[in-house]
Amino acid sequence: MNYANKQQGYYGNVRHDLIDFFGEVNNLKVLEIGAAYGETLYYLKEQKKASEVIGVELFKDEKNLDKYKKIDKLYFGNINDIDLSIYKNYFDLIILADVIEHIDEPLSTLEKAKSLLKQNGVLLISLPNIRHYSAFVKIFIKGSFKYEDNGIFDYTHVRFYCKKDMIELANKANLNVLKSEGSISNYKGKSLVKYINKLTFGFFEEFFSVQNYFIFGK
Predict the structure, then answer these.
(1) d(CA 179, CA 72)
(2) Is 47 helix (H, G, I), strand (E, B) or coil?
(3) Amino acid 12: pLDDT
(4) Which of 67, 71, 170, 216 could form a disulfide with 38 if both were Cys (CB 3.0 to 4.6 A apart)?
């Protein structure tokens, strides 16, 4: 996959949605797999939510080196190939923000991430929800599975997940679900579907959520 052709905006942002979902923290040792330019990690350290921040990113953007934030360490390469054994049982929090759907061997990634967590450490994961109603409209109404530059049908996605699929994958890595939520639940703006979701006590949450969020523990 040619990730280098992605627009900078695809990577360059602080994931406030994930931070809000995770809740208040301070002085954590944090690893982000798929750290991009390090914006989220940098923010966590600047806000003293993290004491040490380390990132892993698939490739180095040589044309935009000025975009990289000053974090403690940034490794480049495939997470499944990088030797991170010095960090065994080290991190309080490992973030995989819209990463799992890009990985050929996600189980290996989760198992490796688990080995880097402290006993009470957690994985914070977000990923697109293929069960969103827009996917139904696109495939069954419009009759198309055309890939796009971003979103659920991003052309760099190699796998697709519903909420149940992600939980089953995590269970295979002997990880336990501590918290899960659809993006419609923590959407900050006004939305008719958010209102409908509340009225139905979350019954349609999976159909209204573009993304799913998870916290997994050992």
Answers:
(1) 29
(2) coil
(3) 63
(4) 71
CA distance 188 to 176: 28
Q: Which two tokens stand for residue 11?
A: 């990577």
75-106 burial: b if 16+ Cβ within 10 Å, else e: eeeebeeeebeebeebbbbbbbbbbbbbbeeb
Q: Which two tokens stand for residue 99?
A: 């990463």
Check residue 205 and give its pLDDT.
84
Say if CB 85 and CB 144 are below 8 A apart.
Answer: no
Question: Over the stretch 184-195, which tens digit does the pLDDT of each residue have?
Answer: 877 666 676 666
Neighbours of 3 (CB within 10 A): 13
Span 30-73, pLDDT tens digits: 999 999 999 999 999 999 999 999 999 999 999 999 999 999 99
Q: Is 76 helix (H, G, I), strand (E, B) or coil?
A: strand
Tokens 């979350």 sit on residue: 202
- 95: enclosing H helix or E strand: strand 91-97
The beta-carbon contacts of 15-20 under 8 Å, at least 24 apart in sequence, are: 15/40, 15/95, 15/97, 15/126, 17/126, 17/183, 17/186, 17/213, 18/95, 18/97, 18/124, 18/126, 18/213, 19/43, 19/44, 19/49, 20/186
Question: Is residue 169 within 8 Å of residue 103, measured between CB atoms?
Answer: no
Widest CA span in the chain: 51
Extract the tokens encoding 130.
């293929």
Strands 211-217 and 117-128: antiparallel
Asked if residues 49 and 26 have their Cβ atoms less than 8 Å apart, the reply is: yes
